[in-house]
From TrEMBL:
Domain of life: Bacteria
Name used for this protein in its record: GGDEF domain-containing protein
Native source organism of the sequence: Planobispora siamensis
Entries under Gene3D superfamilies matching the protein: 3.30.70.270
InterPro entries registered for this protein in UniProt: DGC-Regulatory_Protein, GGDEF_dom, Nucleotide_cyclase, Rev_trsase/Diguanyl_cyclase
Length: 474
């Protein structure tokens, strides 16, 4: 992103010169090519439509720029309204549709709150745009104002889609931040094109085109980012109410009456009315925020209970399956699954009772969590079965981990003066990320089968699955 900013800065300085125009079109062409390449080659089939729409929008904008440059080179002037406008205006609904598709994929069935909040803010922004941008244009006559007035309308459509994506549930990693940054750069540049001519000469205003290039570069950076799937991947995380959201909604509540004062005047009575409305809005929003926070707390608790083992706090089978499937889908990473079954656990339950068994399970869970590295996952499948899921672990490290698990699990657990000892039989399944056709259930079944082989060989050992990358048995 820093490189994109530097390029845009250089282009801005040189913009409207021959070298600047050449640099602009060359860089813009590269951005479009990368955007199409990302949409067609890097993104999975299920996630492709939004990125194809974005690539098409950028191509339309580049085509509009090229047509305008063609008019300038052949006639020496650019018409106020021309065919270029059709290409430029065509990009707005395409980008907006892409953002809406992303939001729908990220949070299916959980979009009502985001839709209502986005509509609230968009209504106020639309009213402000009408008063300060569109109405002044209409003063020049309907024929001359229709096309220029469509650009603020396009911005409102783009803003609505951006707010919809921003205010809907979903991950907020680097790709999301890059995408939103690019769109807000577009909106800021368009706003500058509408307002700056009132205070600056056009020779300075036209340099804003370099800002558009920055937006294009940031947008394609999001498309090329390794984590771009977060923009189209459904997540289960609880969406919390950010304080900034409350502030913006409060401003939206006051926005319409405040804008109305532009025509009514700012008398003492009107100002008192606005102040009272602001106080009421603040009280209502405070109450609303408290209620939402309580709902979020309960929702987070329910989500945690649905995805974690109630006794040990480890991830449950659902989380394991989801994480393993994501790892399989990411062909760049290798996967190692250690499937554990405790040896001698039933005897402890029968002899000392279920409380003793629970103490052993808690002890084993704590030791497995301590052995799990960054990016690894420890899970309990139920009963006395556990899984360690590791990513990008070399052969030697896998063998060492299996040996450490055997040692740690066999360490006695102290319970009411008793030393409770269990062992472990471990099945190992390894997937290097390059084999086609691997599935998460298949890898887990292979590890499970290897675990039963370890039990048949005498317990207290580990065995690698035959149908995955071979290691050895011990």
């Amino acid at each position: 992103m820093g490189v994109a900013g530097a390029i845009a800065a250089v282009t801005a300085v040189m913009y409207a010169t021959t070298a600047g125009e050449i640099m602009y079109f060359a860089l813009y062409g590269v951005v479009c090519a990368l955007s199409w390449w990302a949409a067609l080659r890097l993104v999975g089939d299920g996630d492709r439509r939004p990125w194809l729409l974005i690539a098409l929008a950028q191509t339309l904008w580049l085509t509009g720029d090229a047509i305008e440059m063609g008019f300038l080179l052949t006639t020496g002037e650019v018409p106020p309204v021309g065919i270029s406008d059709a290409f430029w205006l065509g990009g707005y609904p395409l980008i907006a549709t892409a953002l809406v598709l992303m939001a729908r994929r990220r949070a299916p069935g959980r979009l009502r709150g985001g839709v209502l909040d986005a509509l609230t803010l968009t209504t106020v922004a639309g009213l402000a745009s009408w008063q300060f941008l569109i109405q002044p244009l209409l003063g020049y006559g309907l024929d001359d104002a229709v096309i220029p007035a469509l650009y603020p309308v396009g911005d409102i459509v783009l803003l609505a889609a951006t707010l919809f994506l921003t205010l809907s549930p979903g991950e907020r990693g680097a790709p999301t931040r890059l995408l939103l940054t690019a769109v807000f750069v577009y909106l800021a540049v368009d706003l500058g094109y509408n307002l700056l001519p009132y205070v600056l000469d056009y020779q300075y205003v036209e340099k804003l085109g370099a800002g558009l290039l920055l937006g294009h570069a940031v947008l394609v950076t999001a498309a090329l980012h390794p984590g771009r799937s977060e923009l189209t991947r459904s997540g289960s995380q609880v969406h919390t109410l950010h304080p900034a959201r409350v502030v913006f909604l409060g401003l939206a509540l006051l926005g319409t009456p405040t804008l109305a004062l532009r025509y009514a005047g700012f008398s003492e009575q009107e100002m008192l009315t606005i102040a009272a409305s602001a106080a009421c809005a603040a009280f209502v929003l405070a109450r609303f925020t408290g209620a939402v926070r309580e709902q979020e707390r309960m929702q987070a608790q329910l989500v945690y209970q649905a995805r974690h083992d109630p006794l040990t706090g480890l991830a449950n089978r659902t989380v394991l399956n989801d994480t393993l499937q994501l790892a399989v889908d990411d062909s760049r990473s290798g996967i190692t699954v250690l499937y554990l079954d405790l040896d001698g656990f039933k005897e402890i339950n029968d002899t000392h009772g279920h409380d003793a068994g629970d103490a052993v399970l808690l002890s084993v869970a704590g030791r497995l969590s301590a052995l799990a590295g960054d990016g690894d996952l420890a899970a309990r499948l139920g009963g006395d079965e556990f899984v360690l899921l590791c990513r990008d672990r070399p052969l030697e490290a896998t063998v060492e981990l299996a040996e450490r698990v055997l040692r740690e699990v066999s360490t006695p657990t102290l319970f009411q003066g008793h030393r409770l000892s269990v062992g472990a039989s471990i099945g190992i399944a390894v997937h290097d990320g390059a084999k086609p056709g691997a599935t998460a259930p298949g890898i887990l079944r292979a590890a499970d089968a290897a675990m039963y082989s370890a039990k048949r060989l005498g317990r207290g050992r580990w065995v690698a699955a035959d149908d995955t990358d071979p290691i050895m048995a011990a």
